[in-house]
Amino acid sequence: MTQKLNLSNVFSLEATNLSARRGEDLIFEGVSFRLTSGEALVLTGKNGSGKSTLLRVVAGLLRQERGSVSFTDSHGSIHQRVGEVSHYLGHRNAMKSELTVAENLDFWRRFLGNTHDTPAFSIDDAAEAVGLDGITHLPFGYLSAGQQRRFAFAKLLVAHRPVWILDEPTAALDTSGDSLFAGLIETHRQRGGIVLAATHQPLALSDVRELRMTGFAGVSAGVWG
Ligand SMILES: Nc1ncnc2c1ncn2[C@@H]1O[C@H](COP(=O)(O)OP(=O)(O)OP(=O)(O)O)[C@@H](O)[C@H]1O
User: Fold this and answer.
1) Residue 119 or residue 108, greater confidence
2) Nearest CA residue ID for atom 7, ligand 1
3) pTM for this entry
4) What residue owns the CA closest to ligand 1's atom 11?
5) Residue at 6 is within a domain
6) Which helix (H) or strand (E) holds 173?
7) What molecular function does GO assign, one term (predicted)?
8) Does a structural domain hold residue 225?
9) Which residues, in sequence order, are CB contacts of 166 under 8 Å at separation 6+?
10) 189: containing domain
11) Buried b / exposed e across 85-97, counting CB within 10 Å, b at 16+?
C-alpha cells in the first residue's frame, strides 16, 4: 500500500502479554502486538475463539486478566485508556431505533467530539461516504440490516479517532458494501490510522497482518500472529 504519512505524526498501539477471562474460563493468554500508523491487524479464528473478547479488552470495555494495552501519540505521550482514542464498532450498531439517522449521528458527533486536529465528516458527507445519502431523515429502525450497518460505520466518520476497532464490520453487507467499507478503512490507514478488526469474511485490505485466535485449544500454546 502506498502511504503518505507525515513521520512527525506517527503513533502506535501496543498490546503486551494480554490474557483475558470470561466467567471462569481463560480465553487467551500471551497476546502481544504492536501497530504503527497505517497498519492493520485482522483477528481470525473459529466462533468462540476470543476475537470479540480481545477487541473489547483493547477498547477498554473488558478488563484483562494480565498484560497491558497502550497508545503512544505523535508526541511520544503514552495513553493507557485506548478507548479514548478509538472507535469501537461492535456486533451491535449502537444506534437508537426511534431516532432518525441524522439524530443518531448528530448524537455521536457531539458525544465523541474530536480529539485530534483532523477534520471529521459532516453528517451528510458521512451518509454519502457509506452510499446512503438522502435517507438520513428516516428513523434508524426503519432501515434494512445492511443499511443500519452502513450508518453504524458512518459513526466512525463523524468524529475522528486514530484507532478503529471493528468487530465483524461487514456483517449484513452486500458486495458493494464490502468494497465500500474496505475503501473507507484503506483511506483511514492512508491518513495514518490504525485498524484492529475481527472477521470471518476476508476484508479486501492490503498489507494486513493476521492474528489467528485459537481459543481454548490454544491457551496452553499461546496465540500467535
Ligand atoms: N459473559 C461471558 N461469560 C462467560 N463466558 C463468556 C462471556 N462472553 C463470552 N464468553 C465466552 O468467551 C468465549 C469467547 O467469546 P468471543 O465472543 O470473544 O468469541 P469470538 O471469537 O468473537 O466468536 P464469534 O466468532 O462467534 O463472534 C466464548 O467461549 C464465549 O462463550
Assistant:
1) 108
2) 22
3) 0.90
4) 22
5) no
6) none
7) transmembrane transporter activity
8) no
9) 55, 89, 185, 195, 196, 197, 198, 199
10) 11-218
11) bbbbbbeebebee
